[in-house]
Specification:
By secondary structure, this protein is an alpha/beta fold. The protein has 15 helices and 9 strands.
């Protein structure tokens, strides 16, 4: 039997609830074979890895494990693509010299990462600038690279939003834990500066959507998130977050009301894998894929499988036992299959939900620019 026909049969039969229930009787070997077949036919994405910092600055001093993502590890794990973040620490945003430095550094880092992919890895990876690119690159068997910025700190003017878009950036995380010129962060809820979006931040969010940059609400405060949802005309993403109901002490995690609010605009919550996001009840060496899957299931149970995906935060603190790097993605697929997830639900989880959001953002931008 040809692999393509076998994969088609799997998609047909796994789409039913009855099959999902019967699949619980499979052996571990059969589960992995099924997961392998699923990853061959779906488009799979990790929406947040910090790998560029590590690869572009290999001699740097890092406080978290590095080397969790490479194109060979992605291929082994059945991971088609990832959003590779240019990360910026939050500096003194009210200081013009600091803002100027952040802007220059961010531009240089984006260009250096593009050069790395285009000049050193073009045989195995390609940068995607739109959802059509994603589908084409998947068919060509290469890994998909999408550019993003973690922290809106380098955005000084609205024209720079356009500039970053032209460079290939397809989402911007509005802040990183603490306030900047765009909004308040999540880390110190009692120390809000703007109590949500700043006036400039509202303009930034509007401009991002007008040109097709997805708005990422991970790391922002509750007030900022709710302000964003009042402004947007297209869905948003939380690129790497988890559930506060399962870890109340983590200010970065989303409450059930925040999860529902993101779903209400047809957005998506991409669950992070950092042990510090997931539980207070176990030591780090015992936090595994099952704990991660609990967060994924929690979102599914609240708002539905349509609104959840994965954003590991690899090379930035992410990883659990059994999902330590990009080569082990299928272990999560196996766990979700054991919990009754169908292939159609997994198709959404691994990339379909994200692509829906991205395509809606592309359409809104196109309609805006064409006066529709």
């Amino acid at each position: 039997m040809k692999k393509g026909f076998l994969s088609l049969l799997i998609l047909i039969f796994c789409g039913s609830v009855g099959f999902a229930q019967n699949a619980r009787n499979l052996t571990d070997e059969q589960y992995m074979a099924l997961a392998d077949s699923i990853h061959k036919v779906v488009i799979s994405f990790d929406t947040h890895v910090d790998t560029p910092t590590y690869l572009l600055h290999p001699d740097g001093h890092f406080t978290v494990a590095k080397g969790q993502v490479s194109f060979s590890l992605m291929e082994k794990g059945g991971l088609d693509g990832a959003f590779f973040a240019v990360y910026l620490d939050q500096g003194p945003w009210q200081n013009q010299k600091s803002l100027d430095s952040a802007y220059t550094w961010c531009k240089d880092e984006i260009q250096a990462w593009k050069d790395y992919v285009n000049q050193r890895c073009s045989d195995v990876a390609e940068i995607a600038y739109n959802t059509d690119d994603v589908k084409r690159i998947k068919k060509e068997g290469k890994r998909i690279v999408v550019l993003c910025i973690e922290n809106g700190y380098p955005v000084r003017t609205l024209s720079e939003v356009d500039e970053f878009y032209k460079m290939g950036v397809r989402y911007i995380t509005l802040s990183h834990n603490t306030p900047n010129q765009i909004c308040d962060g999540s880390r110190y809820p009692g120390r809000a500066y703007w109590h949500g979006l700043s006036p400039f931040g509202r303009e930034v969010v509007e401009r991002m959507q007008q040109i097709g940059i997805m708005v990422d609400v991970s790391h922002v405060s509750t007030e900022s998130l709710m302000d964003v949802l009042k402004v947007v005309k297209a869905p948003v993403i939380a690129s790497h977050s988890a559930c506060k109901a399962l870890k109340p002490s983590q200010t970065r995690d989303l409450t059930d009301d925040e999860i529902r609010a993101i779903a209400a605009v047809d957005g998506v919550i991409q669950v992070a894998t950092g042990r510090f996001f997931l539980t207070d009840d176990l030591p780090s060496h015992k936090v595994g894929v099952k704990i991660l899957a609990n967060h994924i299931d929690h979102i599914k149970n609240i708002v539905g499988a349509r609104y959840v995906g994965l954003g590991t935060d690899f090379d930035g603190g992410g990883g659990v036992v059994g999902l330590d790097n990009a080569s082990q993605m299928k272990n999560l697929t196996v766990e979700l299959l054991k919990r009754g997830w169908t292939v159609e639900e997994l198709r959404g989880f691994w990339g379909g939900n994200l692509l829906r959001v991205w395509e809606k953002c592309e359409k809104y931008a196109s309609d805006f620019q064409n006066g529709r």
